[in-house]
Amino acid sequence: MLGKTNTPAFSIHWFTRNSLHGHTLNPHNKNITPGGSSGGAAAATAAGMGAIGHGTDIAGSIRYPAYACGIHGLRPSIGRVPMINYTTPDRHIGGQIMAVSGPLARSIKDLELALKVMSRENYDDPWWTPLPFSLPMPKKKIALLKKIEGLKIDPIISAELDIVAKRLEDSGWVIEEPKAPNFQEAAKFQATLWLGEFRRTGGEAITKENDPDSNFIYSQMSRRCPDTSLEKFMDSLQQRARMSREWNKFFDQHPIILCPITGDIPFPDLKDLESEESFDLVFDSMLPQIAPPYMGLPGLSFATSQTDQKIPLGVQFISRKFREDLLLNVGYDLENYYPKIEPVLPAF
Questions:
Q1: Cβ distance 317 to 298 under 8 Å?
Q2: What are the DSSP calls for 165-189, one per residue?
Q3: Among all residues, which ones are annotated catalytic?
Q4: What is the distance between the alpha carbons of residues 161 and 151, in angstroms, rounded to a whole number?
């Protein structure tokens, strides 16, 4: 380890600024977010401070920083990488079944290397599962999802998805456009589990810390998800089994999903702090990141290109639990069509 990287306070922000260590900037463009909560890890990896960054992800905190900083990020399945913190009490059940540790890197090879190292045996995490990385290969079929209920997709991102789909077709993958599974319902239940845990363990700490950004974000999350009663919390846990079955039936026909990481190109920095309306705009755009963790699914954020304003672009791949091998395989194929990602030196 070279050192610790910056995060927003309490990791409840898709941007990276806090009252203790200050502001992390995106090395590509200081006017856009580096992502969060692993924004420091993504910015450092993109700038060449190290080859691999370590991040955590309960609602996109690996995938979105990787996207915003123009690198790749892999959210593993629940149980693939041991998740244990020896200096704090164990997380409540929401965090245990949704939060993961995973790598960010400038190449798929480095992602695979890091994932295998991070996945080494540790039964101190009772969710850790000793499964091989190579499992039987299903049909080379990918579901292209450009229409997700509740998500408005920027035309730039829609065009990027088409380019990626065509290149994968050229690599031998079958691309189909079925009706998307229910992202909105999964995200609703995810938010109940996520915020329910915060109210149980973090609300008092947020008030005590009095970080202005966290105060605002926590208030907005509470506005969006006011009821995390025991009954609502238990219902969210119960519905997870049903939704997992529904998504698994989808994966039976389409082992990999190709979809946006978010409905928008990376936002102007600190966009969600501007107003309630801005917060809602950012939160709603994150639907493709918020939904998969609810079912413990893995996801790959793959960097593709940039806009003329040096704003990185990318796409997301999702598969069923423990099929990180499929995500890496599609990443290797797609990497052949893009130049090697080199460290970027900030021009500011």
A1: no
A2: HHHHHHTT-EEE------HHHHHHH
A3: 37, 61
A4: 15
Is residue 314 helix, strand or coil?
A: strand
What total number of domains does the chain contain? 1
Q: The tokens 């970080």 sit on which residue?
A: 211
Residue pLDDT tens, the chain, 348 long: 889 999 999 999 999 999 999 999 999 999 999 999 999 999 999 999 999 999 999 999 999 999 999 999 999 999 999 999 899 889 999 999 999 999 999 999 999 999 999 999 999 999 999 999 989 999 999 999 999 999 999 999 999 999 999 999 999 999 999 999 999 999 999 999 999 988 887 788 898 999 999 999 999 999 999 899 999 999 999 999 999 999 999 999 999 999 999 999 999 999 999 999 999 999 999 999 999 999 999 999 999 999 999 999 999 999 999 999 999 999 999 999 999 999 999 988
343 in a structural domain: no
CB 251 within 8 A of CB 320: yes
Inside any domain, residue 329: yes
In degrees rounded to 5, what are phi and psi of residue 32? -115, 160
> Which residue's entry shows tokens 């091989």?
132
Nearest CA to 135 out of 291, 297, 328 is that of 328
Q: Identify the domain containing residue 75 by its residue range.
A: 9-335
Is 340 part of a structural domain of the chain?
A: no
Q: Kindly state whether residue 325 falls inside one of the protein's structural domains.
A: yes
Nearest to 285, CA basis, from 304, 301, 272, 298: 272
Q: What is each CA distance from 16 to 13, 34, 66, 269, 293, in whole angstroms?
A: 7, 7, 13, 9, 21
Q: Could you tell me the CATH number of the domain that includes residue 201?
A: 3.90.1300.10
Q: How far is CA 186 from CA 182, 201, 209, 234, 347, in A?
A: 7, 23, 31, 14, 40
